[in-house]
Amino acid sequence: MPPTEQARWFAEEVYPHEPALRAYLQARFPTLRDHDDLVQETYTRLLRAQANGGVRYPKAFIFTAARNAAFDLFRRRGTKPTEAVTDLVELTVLEDRPGVGEQIDQTFELEVLADAVRALPERCRQVLMLRYLDGLAYKEIADQLGISPETVKVHMAKGMRRCAAFFAERGLLATAPPPAAGDFSA
Question: Which of 47, 53, 144, 182 lies 20 to 30 Å from 79, alpha-carbon distance?
Fold first, then answer.
């Protein structure tokens, strides 16, 4: 990788994570006073790995390399860390929100769901919204709409089938559910 491209890659993919890396080192290894040295050692390991074939996930790499560098430092000094990190699951807490791709997928799916609900007949839409948005039980829905609980169940089933068919038409479900007996309007 040419030096300018490497600098761009470092600035975009690695450097933004430095504050989180320093916070991680401070939290996990509070007895170490050499956090700056650990960060530099981490970057050295990262750049060496990048030159030897690339680093697919720079953020994950720097946290793992920093932890390993800290353990190496403890071994050289003959001391033990205050709190050993034995499970990488803890690292996932650093960023627990979905990535951009997942957010776009969720937004798209919510838009399709809203379109599916808007396409329902009025009574089905009312029943589904009272059930899932307001959290009402079938009996409460029946009382509010002046219909029987059995009719609420019929509207729920019909609405769910129609939503599933709507999703299947857009490739969000493998297959559409079969229509219920006697339901020729789905």
Answer: 47
89 contacts: CB under 8 Å, gap ≥ 6: none
Residue tagged 């920093």 (tokens): 66
pLDDT < 50: residue spans in the chain: 184-186
Determine the Cα–Cα distance for residues 20 and 92; give it in Å rounded to an integer.
12
pLDDT tens digits, one per residue of 15-66: 899 998 888 888 888 887 778 888 999 999 888 888 887 788 888 888 888 8
Q: Under DSSP, is residue 51 helix (H, G, I), strand (E, B) or coil?
A: helix
Burial profile 84-98: b = 16 or more Cβ within 10 angstroms, e = fewer? ebeeeeeeeeeeeee
C-alpha–C-alpha distance, residues 70 and 159, integer Å: 57
The structure tokens 């709507």 sit at 166
Q: What is the pLDDT of residue 131?
A: 92
Provide the CA 69 distance to its chain's centre, in angstroms: 29
Tokens 């750049």, residue?
47
Q: Compute CA distances 48 → 6, 44, 66, 69, whole Å.
A: 12, 6, 14, 14
